[in-house]
Write a structure and sequence with these properties.
- The complex is a heterodimer of chains A (405) and B (278).
- With 405 residues, chain A is of the alpha/beta class.
- Helices cover 44% and strands 18% of the residues of chain A.
- In chain A, helix 14 (338-352) packs across helix 15 (358-370).
- The radius of gyration of chain A is 20 Å and the shape is globular.
- In chain A, 61% of the residues are buried.
- Chain B has a 9-stranded parallel sheet.
- Chain B has a single domain, classed as TIM Barrel (Alpha-Beta Barrel).
- In chain B, helix 4 (79-90) runs parallel beside helix 6 (112-122).
- The longest helix of chain B is centred in the C-terminal third of the chain and has 23 residues, at 255-277.
- With 278 residues, chain B is an alpha/beta fold.
- Classes of the chains: A alpha/beta (405), B alpha/beta (278).
- The complex binds pyridoxal-5'-phosphate (PLP).
C-alpha cells in the first residue's frame, strides 16, 4: 500500500476490511450470528446507558484507570529515554484481557446469551472470562491447548475455582491456534445459546474492531496521564503482540499523531530462522480463523506451528488491523526471542519490583535496546500487559535447570 | 454452461431418484491408495464424488475428518497433488461429477485464477468452500462461476428465510443443506426436520438440494434420500477407511474394499428410497 490514508483510525469498512485484511471468513452456520453481533454491538456502542454501566465496572470492579508509572530505576539503568510503564498488570485478574471481556460479556447479556465460550493461550483471557461469568452468573467453557494447560497451570486452577470448565485441546499443535479451532467448533454446534468471547483483535468482523474499541481505553488513559505528567504526548509506544489486543489498545488513539513512534514486538521464539511466532516478520497474507491477515504457513497454505516461550504469544497469526498498519508503515513491527524475554523478565523484576508476564517481557526486551538510543527527554511508554505470577513456576523451572548445568 | 453435476442431477431427477454423494479426503492415507479408492467409488454406487482438500485447521470438521486431513498431510498431500488425483480419476471416468471441498487458505495461496484454471482442466466440476459465505463472494465464488465451475453453497439450520436469498444468489450445481448445527460427524440428522428444511429451501430455488452432515447408515441415507435430491455421506466412509489402516496409519490390503463395501451398502439405502416411493 503506497498511498498514505488520511486517517489511520477510520477502519474497518462496513465489510470489516482494513485495506485488504480482515473480512468474515466463517462457516454459514455462524454468519447470521455474526451479523446479529455486529448489530447488537453497534446499538450498545450508541447507548449511553451501556457506556455508563461499563464505566462503573471499569472503575470499581477492574480498578481502572491503571497507573502510568515512571520506571525510574529502569530508566537510569538504560541511560536513555524516560520510560513509563502502563500498568495493565494491576487490573483485576492481572492483565489487559479483562477490559475486552467486560465489554463482550455486557454485549452477550444484551443479546440474551447464557453460555460463554473462550479460547485462551496464557490463560489470562480465560481467567478474565471465567471471572466475569462468575460475576454475572453465566456458564463458561474455556478451550486451552494441552501444552498450555501444562505450562500455565496456575491459571487453569484459577479458572476452575471461578467455576469455569477448562477443556484441554489435544488436536493439532495443542496450543492457542487449536484452542481457537475447538472454540469455533463448539460455537458452530451451539450457536443458538452461545456467545464466543474472543480474546484478541482477531476473528471475523466485528471482533477485531470491537475488541480494539474495548481495549482502546489503555491508549486514551495513557494520553491523558502523559499530558498530566509531562504536559505533552509520548514520543514512542511499545507493546508485545500475540494476536495484538494490548498493542492495539495502546496504539489506536495515537495512530494519527505522526510524532509518536510506534513499535509492536512479536515473539521470535528460538530465533527468526528457527521456530518462532512472528507472523508479520516471518509470514505472509492468508486466511484463518475468520480473517485475512499475516500468517505463518508453508508453500501449500498449510498453517505452520508457532513457537514462543510465552503461551500468550504462541499463535501463527495476528489481528488484521496490525497487518494493515504493517503494510502502511505506520507501526514498526520488531521481535524478541525467548532468551531476550527471559532476561527482560528478570531485569524488570530486580530493578522495579514488578514481575511482568512473559508476554509483556517481550516488549521490555526491546525497550532494553531502544531506550539507550533515545535522548533523555524522549518519553517512551511500554504496555505492561500482564503480571508474571502465572509464569513463576515455568520461569523458576527454567532457571533452576540452568543452574544445575 | 452446464457441468457434469448439472447433467448428473438432471438425469437422476428424470429417473425419479436421489443422488448418492460420497466424501473422502484427498490423499488419505496416501496418494496412491486415495486414487484407487476414488476410482472404485462410481462402481460401488457413488453418483457424485466430493474430495476433501486437506487443511491443517479444519474448523468445521469433527475428529474423524480432522484425522483424515492430518493423515493426508503427513503423507505429503498438497493442493497440487489433489488436482493430480482428479486428473488420475478422469483418465477412466469422464461422467462422474467431482466436487472439491475444503477451506479457502490453500486456494488463496495457490492463487485463485491459477487454481480455477488448473481445477477446470483437471476435471473438477464444483467447489464447496466452508469458510467463504456470500459476504466474501468476490474472493472465489464469482471467479469460479466465470471459470465454468459450480460454486456450491452450504445452507444451514441457521440460514433463515431472510438470509436464504443471499445464500442462494450465486449458488449453482446444487445447494448443500447442512442438516445439523455442528461439525461433521457429530449429531444424527432428523429426516422429518430435514424434509421441512428442504421444502423451505425449494420455495426459494429450482436448484437440487443435497443433504449432508450426520448421515451414517443405509437406513438414514434412505430416509434422507426420500426428503432431498441427494444424500451425502462423509464421516462414516472416512471412519471405515481409518479402521482398515494398520497401527502406523498405513493402508492395508483391506482399505479400498472397506470403503467400496460401505459405499455399496449406503448406495443401496439411497436406491431403496426410490423403490419405496414408487
Ligand atoms: C499478559 C498478556 N499480554 C499479552 C498477551 C497477548 O495477547 P494480545 O497480543 O492480544 O495482547 C497475552 C495473551 O494471553 C497476555 O496474557
Amino acid at each position: 500500500m503506497n498511498s498514505r490514508p488520511n486517517s489511520f483510525r477510520s477502519g474497518p469498512d462496513e465489510r470489516g476490511h482494513f485495506g485488504m485484511f480482515g473480512g468474515r471468513f466463517v462457516a454459514e452456520t455462524l454468519m447470521p450470528l455474526i451479523l446479529d453481533l455486529e448489530k447488537a454491538y453497534a446499538e450498545a456502542k450508541a447507548d449511553p446507558a451501556f457506556q455508563r454501566e461499563m464505566n462503573g465496572y471499569l472503575k470499581d470492579y477492574i480498578g481502572r484507570p491503571s497507573p502510568l508509572y515512571f520506571a525510574q530505576r529502569l530508566t537510569e539503568h538504560l541511560g536513555g529515554a524516560k520510560i513509563y510503564l502502563k500498568r495493565e498488570e494491576l487490573n483485576h485478574t492481572g492483565s489487559h484481557k479483562v477490559n475486552n471481556v467486560l465489554g463482550q460479556i455486557m454485549v452477550a447479556r444484551r443479546m440474551g446469551k447464557k453460555r460463554i465460550i473462550a479460547e485462551t493461550g496464557a490463560g489470562q483471557h480465560g481467567v478474565a472470562t471465567a471471572t466475569l461469568c462468575a460475576r454475572f452468573g453465566l456458564d463458561c467453557v474455556v478451550y486451552m491447548g494441552a501444552v498450555d494447560v501444562a505450562r500455565q497451570e496456575p491459571n487453569v486452577i484459577r479458572m476452575e475455582m471461578l467455576g469455569a470448565k477448562v477443556v484441554p485441546v489435544q488436536s493439532g499443535t495443542r496450543t492457542l491456534k487449536d484452542a481457537m479451532n475447538e472454540a469455533l467448533r463448539d460455537w458452530v454446534t451451539n450457536v443458538h445459546d452461545t456467545f464466543y468471547c474472543i480474546g484478541t483483535v482477531a476473528g471475523p468482523h466485528p471482533y477485531p474492531m470491537m475488541v480494539r474499541d474495548f481495549q482502546s481505553i489503555i491508549g486514551h488513559e495513557t494520553r491523558a496521564q502523559m499530558q498530566e505528567a509531562e504536559g505533552r504526548l509520548p514520543d514512542s509506544l511499545i507493546a508485545c503482540i500475540g494476536g495484538g489486543s494490548n498493542a492495539m489498545g495502546l496504539f489506536h488513539p495515537f495512530l494519527d499523531d505522526p510524532s509518536v513512534e510506534i513499535f509492536g514486538v512479536e515473539a521470535a521464539g528460538h530465533g527468526l530462522d528457527k521456530l518462532h511466532a512472528a507472523s508479520l516478520t516471518g509470514g505472509k497474507p492468508g486466511v484463518l480463523h475468520g480473517n485475512r491477515t499475516y500468517l505463518l504457513m508453508d508453500a501449500d497454505g498449510q498453517i505452520q506451528d508457532a513457537h514462543s516461550i510465552s503461551a500468550g504469544l504462541d499463535y501463527p497469526g495476528i489481528g488484521p488491523e496490525h497487518s494493515w498498519l504493517h503494510e502502511s508503515g505506520r507501526v514498526k513491527y520488531i521481535s524478541a526471542t525467548d532468551e531476550e524475554a527471559l532476561a527482560a523478565f528478570q531485569l524488570l523484576s530486580r530493578l522495579e519490583g514488578i514481575i511482568p508476564a512473559l508476554e509483556s517481557a517481550h516488549a521490555i526486551a526491546r525497550v532494553i535496546d531502544l531506550a539507550p538510543k533515545r535522548s533523555k527527554d524522549h518519553l517512551m511508554v511500554v504496555n505492561l500487559s500482564g503480571r508474571g505470577d502465572k509464569d513463576v513456576p515455568q520461569v523458576g523451572d527454567i532457571l533452576k535447570s540452568r543452574k544445575a548445568k | 454452461m452446464s457441468t457434469r453435476i448439472d447433467t448428473r442431477l438432471a438425469d437422476l431427477r428424470k429417473q425419479g431418484r436421489a443422488a448418492f454423494v460420497t466424501f473422502l479426503m484427498a490423499g488419505d492415507p496416501d496418494p496412491a491408495t486415495s486414487l484407487a479408492i476414488i476410482k472404485a467409488l462410481p462402481q460401488a454406487g457413488a453418483e457424485i464424488i466430493e474430495i476433501g482438500m486437506p487443511f491443517t485447521d479444519p474448523m468445521a470438521d469433527g475428529p474423524a475428518i480432522q484425522a483424515a486431513g492430518l493423515r493426508a498431510l503427513k503423507g505429503g498431500m498438497t493442493l497440487h497433488k489433489t488436482l493430480d488425483l482428479v486428473r488420475g480419476f478422469r483418465k477412466d471416468d469422464d461422467a462422474t461429477p467431482i466436487v472439491l471441498m475444503g477451506y479457502y487458505n490453500p486456494i488463496y495461496i495457490y492463487g485463485v485464477e491459477a487454481f480455477l484454471a488448473d481445477a477446470k482442466t483437471a476435471g473438477v466440476d464444483g467447489l464447496i468452500i466452508v469458510d467463504l459465505p456470500p459476504e466474501e463472494d468476490d474472493e472465489l465464488c464469482l471467479p469460479a462461476m466465470k471459470a465454468g465451475l459450480n460454486f456450491i453453497r452450504l445452507a444451514t439450520p441457521t440460514t433463515d428465510d431472510k438470509r436464504l436469498p443471499a445464500v442462494l444468489a450465486n449458488t449453482s450445481g446444487f445447494v448443500y443443506y447442512v442438516s445439523i448445527t455442528g461439525i461433521t460427524g457429530a449429531a444424527a440428522a432428523n429426516a422429518t426436520q430435514v424434509g421441512d428444511a428442504v421444502a423451505r429451501i425449494k420455495r426459494h430455488t429450482k436448484l437440487p438440494v443435497c443433504v449432508g452432515f450426520g448421515i451414517r447408515t443405509p437406513d438414514a441415507a434412505r430416509d434422507i434420500a426420500r426428503a432431498a435430491d441427494g444424500a451425502v455421506v462423509g464421516t462414516a466412509l472416512v471412519e471405515a477407511l481409518a479402521k482398515s489402516l494398520d497401527a502406523e496409519g498405513r493402508a492395508t490390503a483391506a482399505t479400498v474394499k472397506a470403503v467400496a463395501d460401505l459405499t455399496a451398502s449406503l448406495a443401496q439405502g439411497v436406491r431403496g428410497a426410490a423403490q419405496a416411493a414408487e
